[in-house]
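Page 37, continued from 36.
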């Protein structure tokens, strides 16, 4: 036996990969790509859920803050449009609230369907039109409960409503001390 043919045989073997080796590399690469795409899609879904939750929270907080500011600085509460015998009461809560500001302006908070946005229910105000956008839907409220603070001469108004976006709901509630009532 000569050394030459054996060395040529070894040289050919070292120069390439077998079919089994190539198939193993392709399989491992495919598994790595599948794992990476799975992690990427999970991150995208988590980011979308977080953005949805944040927008819902921001819209509700903004509407609540606007109502609190106007109610806190009002000089008196007026009868509601839907029932002129009611201003604001402890029980049952009212579905609207009408207040008068220092400059004599009247603001009414209530629920209204926005015909320009597919009939979505929103928190409406005659001074700011809609306090919630079409990105969220008002699913409950607003409800207003008024409690007199006996002996102190002031009144507390509790605001309560629920907003929904993409099947996620969040309730917003707060009490406001009416300073100038």
């Amino acid at each position: 036996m000569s050394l030459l043919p054996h060395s040529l045989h070894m040289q050919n073997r070292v120069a390439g990969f077998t079919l089994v080796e190539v198939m193993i590399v392709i399989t491992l690469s495919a598994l790595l790509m599948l794992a990476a795409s799975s992690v990427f899609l999970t991150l995208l879904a988590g980011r979308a859920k977080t953005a949805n939750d944040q927008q819902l929270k921001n819209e509700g907080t903004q509407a609540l803050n606007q109502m609190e500011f106007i109610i806190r600085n009002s000089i008196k509460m007026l009868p509601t449009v839907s029932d002129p015998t009611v201003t604001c009461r402890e029980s049952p809560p009212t579905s609207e609230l009408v207040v008068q500001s220092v400059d004599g302006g009247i603001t009414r908070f209530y629920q209204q369907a926005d015909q320009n946005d597919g009939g979505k229910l929103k928190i409406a105000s005659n001074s700011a039109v809609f306090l919630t956008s079409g990105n969220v839907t008002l699913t409950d409220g607003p409800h207003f409960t008024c409690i007199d603070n006996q002996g102190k001469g002031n009144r507390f108004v509790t605001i309560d409503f629920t907003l929904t976006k993409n099947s996620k709901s969040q309730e917003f509630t707060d009490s406001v001390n009416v300073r100038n009532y």
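Residues 59-178 form one domain. Flag for discussion at group meeting. The beta strands are 74-78, 97-101, 106-114, 120-125, 129-130, 137-149, 154-165, 168-178.
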